[in-house]
Amino acid sequence: MGAVSGMEVLMISVFEDGHRQSPLPEECRLYDSEFYKSEVILVQVNPGEAFTIRREDGQYQCITGPAQVPMMSPNGSVPPIYVPPGYVSQIIEENGVRRVLVLPQQPDFHPGGHSPLHHPPPPPHAHLPAFIPHPAMMPPPPHLYTGIAGGVGDLSSQYISQYHPAQFFSDQVSTDSLSQHGRPSFVHRDDRASKAHERLQKKVKERQGVGGGGGQVKDSPPPSPRKSCNSPPTVDIQNGIGGKALDAEHRHVVACSDKQTGKEKNGELKELDKETQALLALLSNITKPEVSDIQAREAVVNWSDPTRPESENTTTEEEPVLPEPLSYEISISITGKDGKYQSKYSGEGLSATLEGLRPATDYHVRVQAMCTSLLGSPSEAVSFTTLSCEPDPPGPPRKSSGTKNSLTLQWKAPCDNGSKIKNYNLQWDEGKGTGVFEQCYYGPQKQYRVTKLSPASRYSFRLAAKNDMGVSEFSEVVDLFTSCSVPLPPFPPELEMAGVTWLCLKWQRPSSSPKEDDIYYILEMEEEDSGYGFQPSYDGDELSFTVRNLHRSSKYKFRVAAYNSEGKSNPSQVVEFITKPDRPSCPCRPVIRGRVQPDSFKMAWEPPKENGGAEITKYVVELSEGVTGASWELVYSGSALEHVCGGLKPGCSYRTRVYCMSEGGQSPLSETLQVQTPAVPPGPCQPPRLVGKPKAREVQLRWGPPHIDGGSPVTCFSVEVIGPQSDESREVYQGPELDCTVGGLSPGRTYGFRLKAANKAGFGPLSERCEVTTGPGAPEQCKAPSTTCKSPSCVVVSWEAPPCNGAPVTEFRLEWGAAEGSMQVCYSGAGLSHEMKGLLPATNYFCRVQAVNVAGVGPYSEAVLCQTPCSVPAAVSNIYLLKESELQRYGSPVDADEDEEGGVIHPPLAFSPSTCLGICWDAPCDHGSEITSYLIDLGEKQPIVVGPVTKYVIQNLQPDTSYRIRIQAQNSLGTGAFSHTFKLKTKPLPPQPPRLECTAFSHQTLRLKWGDGPAKTAASDTLQSHLQMEDKNGRFISLYKGPCHTHKVQRLNESTSYTFRIQAFNEAGEGPFSSVYTFTTPRSPPAPLKAPKLERLDDNSCEVTWESLSHMKGDPISYSLQCMMGNTEFKQAYKGSATSFLVQNLQANSDYRFRVCAIRQCQDATELSGPYSPTVTLTPQRSETVQSGGAAGSGSRTGTESNRTRQSLTDEQCAFLLLMVFAVIAILIAFVIQYFVIK
């Protein structure tokens, strides 16, 4: 195909429904540049148009013109262009210009229009702008021009109808392409329309042949350049895409001048223009629509087909023929007849219902006719006004102010929809939270104050508005809270983080304030020595705040106060925090003090000018060898202002720097000081080493060069020897070699050798001494050592030196142990005696010694036995306090006493923990002599002497008193050391029993109370009680044990006496039991009876029957019947043992109520009445008409069913009926709300 000069994109869309903007063709010009080798195609988007692309992440982006969009093409072909859903694109080439046709994909596409019920699917991204512009922006397509492959601005835009593709484009696209998209032939077309359609297709083919379109005539020269037709101005549509309306001839027809058309004019084109103009005039001649059935939010619009203009005098053949059915577009405006219009309907019908209108609003409506690719002028606008209706739902009320017991609500008026709002209905749930709302206010005001509320409570409100047309829907439910009391002072603020110029503080919400209460906090700060006192630093609802712009290393005082709508609390306690110091500045450049030595120099520096608010803690000196300063080594860290850098190499260059540190951090590095050390003689050599085994009179030595040559090569070595009994030295070798043989030595003697090196600067220092012994031998066996006992824990061991065999003894090794086979070295040295300490008295030990010299180790001497003398006992290590149980078992039990009242045997208390202390201890070591006694020291009292025991009870002590106790052991040799002092305390005396009372009683329960405390106490109270009750066997059983002061005894028998006693106890122990208390339960009353049954005998009498009860523990049961007439009081009608009673002398027109109770006849002539039964009612009997034939019977009773009394409903039955009626009404109301309000 080769490189093309440009490509033009044409798109054909299907008309959408009236509620969406109509799709229109979009003009995009694409140019394939030959200059760029990366195959970049520019898509030119004209002003007022939009171009949609798909990005790499799958999202769609809409670009509005004017703009040029670069698109990458790997092979020079057309890049993929976004196609709306329901469409398909096809590329055709015509005269060197590539066009992209976007056609509908539906096989049942009808050019005549679409039904409003069948629309193409919406675009995938509703938030993006439209893919193609509005119809008002579409340039007219009556003339078809072929694109010119010449320049960018010389390409003419080709436009196709956004609703129905014109038939004269059928040959521009291949036949296969059109058949692929299902373009069916028009079945409902008369012969006249078919002829017009064929004539149009023929003219299009001839025009394409004249203009050289297509790729068939390849060798023909391109036509001369011509200017494109002027595009009409855009139209401003309600959806923001278009502009103002234009005249029909400028919107749909472009009349190109003779200069623009050039040589392409011919008679057939003129004939095509006439037919198009005639069809356009027919579409523009449409009458204004009629509006009927106007409601608040909708109206019905009717219109008629356009009529032919009367002024036209055309023949039958020249009359415009509609090749397709007409479509109509209804648009409305609310800004006047000349304002902006918005499309509301598009279809083929002659009537439409406009929905979604605003109540009480003036509207202007007009209609436009459409056929094929032509759109007629709009008709004259018709004005109408929608009706008024109920107001819109108001917004939820808001809280303007509030206290603990009131809320002030305000609201804004909603849209009244044409009728003034008269009243507002404010409802609330009364704080119950059940979702049931009651009316709180009804009136015209826009605010209301609700009073008598509970503090810190939630209340739900909703609002409705009412005008003359009705009541609006309720607003959303809003939850409001009442305020709480003034909050308590919060805890003092805490320091979370600290900086140089800031402090981050946090505090806690007052624990007594509920979560619903809005608590605000005021953080106050006082600067030290400022004189201004506390100043507020923060006011808000946060629980933390960072105070900034502070001074470094300064003290600040803080306190916080809480407040709400009720007031402000007292401030918290004052706390003091200190800001951190800043890091100091760098020290001054170091300087040299004194003369630089070959291996050291002294440097000094000045403190930094700024210490950052804190004292300098130390200075750090770093040293680097060489002139580059690649690696630095720390050589000093301290508080001094000078330092001697030693251990340097002579003749080397060094760099040094210093920095300081304080509490605020590390300072920057100072400037670098460079130092050069002078050259010196060589450094010390390593001591010479012995080579081989030394002989009796000579030794062979070897050495190495020194590590430091002093800046000059070593040329000579000197070896000196020191005699065994003299400190004088003499030179035995001098030369450049690294080894030598020294002769003339004495055997078995130790000599010292030293080495020094020399260079051109002279001899260096001598090396360390190397001692060499000639011909040494191991020492002989030592004699047995002697032992002397200085004390039971100390022994002195001494020995003599053996012959050394030519080499002096350098070391003695002493072994010591408790057994002969397990001795260990306890001394190693040159001494002839050693003192062994820390020994145990009355213990056997073994010892031996050996001598060591340079030649080896001599044999051990014979082992010697040594026994340490006896001593006083050791100190007592631990003292323990006996538990109460062990204390009771420690004393021997005496005869037990029997409790006369309860019959329970209690062992006597041998020792009381209030006056006694039971102690035990671990027996110490007796050190060879048996312990005879122990001495217990109590401090103030006389010490207590006890026998050889490890337990003892100290008696006759004061209660609740602390004592310091220590113990020492004694044997025949004396008294040992005291133990550590242990502090022990006696317990207080146990409490006395409280007084027991019976506060409430019944036939089955007794409520007992004791003491003066509350009924319920915490479980951690020290004073507790133990309540017991005597059973049938005369034993006391436990009922309650705890800190409470009341207890309810249940499941008792009636008319029975019970015996109780109580005991108090605490940490000191259990107190004595109280004297016994006896309480008696009363008799139980009879059980309630069921409702009596009534049976009317005649107009003046009835029979009342009730159930019977059995005797209660031998006591007979009687009954009491009461009767009440009308609203009078109940009077006794019967009392006796019968279970029925005949009531006579009743009034015919009165209501009677009966109830009955049981009475227990006790043996002591007292009566116990039970509760009354439910009440039954006897209503008056209605008179019934008795037939005459029925009254003439013989002695038989007439109207048996009519004579029986109709039994009235009981109270439970009436309540059940009321409940059922209420439930039915609630279900009906819910159904009505669901059906009429929600749906």
UniProtKB/TrEMBL annotation:
CDD domains: FN3 (cd00063). Residues 187-208 have a biased composition (Basic and acidic residues). The chain crosses the membrane at residues 1215-1238. It is found in: Golgi apparatus membrane. Residues 227-237, 1173-1187, 1197-1206 have a biased composition (Polar residues). It is a single-pass membrane protein. Residues 285-389, 393-486, 489-582, 587-680, 684-777, 778-871, 903-989, 990-1084, 1085-1183 form the Fibronectin type-III domain. Gene3D superfamilies: Immunoglobulins. It comes from the Eukaryota. PROSITE patterns: FN3 (PS50853). Keywords: Golgi apparatus, Membrane, Repeat, Transmembrane, Transmembrane helix. GO terms for cellular component: Golgi membrane. It holds the Pfam family fn3. InterPro entries: E3_ligase_FN3/SPRY, FN3_dom, FN3_sf, Ig-like_fold. Residues 108-128, 174-240, 1173-1206 are annotated as: Disordered. Belongs to the FNDC3 family. PANTHER family: E3 UBIQUITIN-PROTEIN LIGASE TRIM36-RELATED, FIBRONECTIN TYPE-III DOMAIN-CONTAINING PROTEIN 3A. This is Fibronectin type-III domain-containing protein 3A. It comes from Nothobranchius furzeri.
